[in-house]
Amino acid sequence: MTVNFGLVLVTAASEAEAENLAKSLVENKLAACVSLSPIRSVYSWQGEIHSEAEWQLVIKTDLAKFEALKTKVQELHSYEVPEIIAIPIIAGSEAYLHWLGQSLSLQSELQS
Description:
Blueprint: E1 5-12, H1 15-27, E2 33-45, E3 48-62, H2 66-76, E4 85-88, H3 94-103, H4 107-110
Antiparallel strand pairs: 1-3, 1-4, 2-3
Helix pairs in contact: 1-2
């Protein structure tokens, strides 16, 4: 089996919401790690321009888990249309990618 590691970007309305999403994703082995950062987003919503403080989640995962991850985010998220964007990891340190696989319970697949 080929493992397709990637980053998934999600924004959240508050630090508490971002923390809740991150913990749920890691606990459910949908993410190995989630980095959280405060950001400011400028966007158009329902015909108006908004500028809001948000939290950016950078989720490290196996993209084979994307559908389950997306479903979990949509289940927990306060936004009507949350950002959920996947970006493939095309290269990385072997040690980090090994840890990523172990954290996602992919160890047996990585050794095949």
